[in-house]
Specification:
With about 100 residues, the chain is mainly β. About 5% of the residues lie in helices and about 30% in strands. The termini are far apart.
Length: about 100
């Protein structure tokens, strides 16, 4: 059953979500409301969002300010991160300087 929202004017909208790839290669989900149910309709409001209504009566999703847990890191992504060796050889400790003037 798709999530529906009826605005103050009595029009019913259905919440949808669509996966898309951004220019930098990251995957994001775009959320939108439509008057008809399509194959990408969602059953509930995503965690961390709430439904608000604009002054024109259109429903929009807004982050509700609660903490959204980060996406778990996949094991193949961990292999790509350079590991620290623990030795500080070759690194210098830098003292901060304060300029007066």
């Amino acid at each position: 059953m798709a999530y529906t929202y009826t605005n103050s004017r009595g029009t019913t909208y259905v919440l949808h979500g669509r996966e898309t790839t951004l220019r930098n290669g990251l995957q994001r989900t775009l959320y939108f409301f439509a008057k008809d149910a399509r194959e990408d309709a969602l059953d509930s409001v995503p965690a961390g969002y709430e439904v608000m209504e604009t002054k024109n009566g259109l429903p929009v999703l807004k982050r509700d300010g609660r903490f959204i847990p980060p996406t778990p890191v996949k094991t193949e992504e961990v292999a790509d991160v350079p590991q620290e060796t623990g030795d500080d050889e070759g690194s210098e400790e830098v003292e901060p300087t304060v300029e007066e003037g």
